[in-house]
Write a structure and sequence with these properties.
The complex is a heterodimer of chains A (114) and B (114). Chain A is mostly beta strands. Chain A contains no helices and 11 strands. In chain A, a hairpin with a 2-residue loop joins strand 7 and strand 8. Chain B starts with a strand and ends with a strand. The chains are: A mainly beta (114), B mainly beta (114).
């Protein structure tokens, strides 16, 4: 298993500003994932972050809006840029378990944009 | 495209009783995994149970069991002897074997009544 922590756990931000969310894992992992969970909705994959390479974004998500860093095998950041109220969501970091197994999730960051 | 459908936005169960949460999915793949994740109010996503599509036997984890009907593309979760701590949002998820991308359903909120 993997223990994942995220900072901040929640934040309230003003429109037009940016917020960087940190994700820390207690073990080295190749792939880290960022998800968005909009109010009352399911989880949607934003991007996959591999250490040493550019993140791979899913359809509907772009690097300019959600830049991601992956400086080492235990850490990643997701920035939500130029925020609008539509960005109000829970953002979750996750990592893949060994082999073809499950994913482990962080506790999420609840973002509210006013 | 693969899809996961949870048709019950909310369910209630009396403590100590049994409840079944429904999930259907659509795929043309033959080798895949199905998961049930629990998201309590703390937001921490926790794996409840996992089913490998090539296994005919239904997975069981203590009070949690699934009814996997591959031909019908149905994957329901049965919770026996429900406890107050089972109250959470439950997400059904799908992943093609060998890939990393999960497809999540919209979730079912389970309330457990004392």
């Amino acid at each position: 298993s993997a223990v994942i922590s995220q900072k901040p756990s929640r934040d309230i931000c003003q429109r037009g500003t940016s917020l960087t969310i940190q994700c820390q894992v207690d073990s080295q992992v190749t792939m880290m994932f960022w998800y968005r969970q909009q109010p009352g909705q399911s989880l949607t994959l934003i991007a996959t972050a591999n250490q040493g390479s550019e993140a791979t974004y899913e359809s509907g998500f772009v690097i300019d809006k959600f830049p991601i860093s992956r400086p080492n095998l235990t850490f990643s950041t997701l920035t939500v840029s130029n925020m609008s109220p539509e960005d109000s969501s829970i953002y979750l970091c996750s990592v893949r378990g060994q082999g073809d197994g499950e994913q482990f999730f962080g506790p999420g960051t609840r973002l509210t944009v006013l | 495209a693969q899809t996961v459908t949870q048709s019950q936005p909310e369910m209630s169960v009396q403590e100590a009783e049994t409840v079944t949460l429904s999930c259907t999915y659509d795929t043309s793949e033959s080798d895949y995994y199905l998961f049930w994740y629990k998201q309590p109010p703390s937001r921490q996503m926790i794996l409840v149970i996992r089913q490998e599509a090539y296994k005919q036997q239904n997975a069981t984890e203590n009070r949690f069991s699934v009814n996997f009907q591959k031909a019908a593309k149905s994957f329901s979760l049965k919770i026996s002897d429900s406890q107050l701590g089972d109250a959470a949002m439950y997400f059904c998820a799908y992943r093609v074997s060998g890939t990393y991308k999960y497809i999540f359903g919209t979730g079912t909120r389970l309330k457990v009544l004392a």
